Amino acid sequence: MAKKSEMAGILCGWVRSVEEYHKALQIVLPKRKKLEQAKKDLEEKKARLKKLTDEFEILSTELE
After folding, report:
1. Which pLDDT score is estimated for 42?
2. CA-to-CA distance for 31 and 28, rounded, in angstroms?
3. What angle do CA 17, 23, 28 make, to 5 degrees?
4. What pLDDT band is residue 4 in, cutting at 50, 70 and 90?
5. Reduced to 3 states, what is the DSSP secondary structure of residue 2?
6. CB neighbours (10 Å) of residue 6?
7. How far apart are CA 33 and CA 15, in angstroms?
8. Distances from the Cα of 21 to the Cα of 11, 16, 33, 39, angstroms
9. What gap in Å lies between CA 47 and CA 52, rounded to an integer?
10. What is the pLDDT of residues 26-59, one digit of tens each?
C-alpha cells in the first residue's frame, strides 16, 4: 500500500497496530482481573490470620 500512497501506507500501519493492541488487551485484561481478585483474597486471608494470631496470643497468655 505504501507504494501507491504514503498516507495510505501510514494509515494501514496504524490500523494494524491498533488491531495488535486489541489482541494483546484481550489476553492481558483477564489476567489483570485475576490479579486484582488474588490481591483481595490475600488481604482477606492476612486479616483472618491476624485475627487468629491475636486470638491465639490471648488464649496462650490465659493458659500460662
Report:
1. 98
2. 5
3. 120
4. confident
5. coil
6. 10
7. 27
8. 15, 9, 18, 26
9. 9
10. 999 999 999 999 999 999 999 999 999 999 999 9
At 2, the pLDDT band (50, 70, 90 cuts) reads: low
Contact 12, 1 (CB under 8 A): yes
Query: What is residue 29's predicted lDDT score, i.e. its pLDDT?
Result: 97
Rounded distance, CA 18 to CA 57, Å?
57
Give the Cα separation of 61 and 50 in Å (integer).
17
Question: Whose grid coordinates read 489476553?
Answer: 27
Give the contacts of 2 (CB within 8 A, at least 6 positions apart).
8, 9, 10, 12
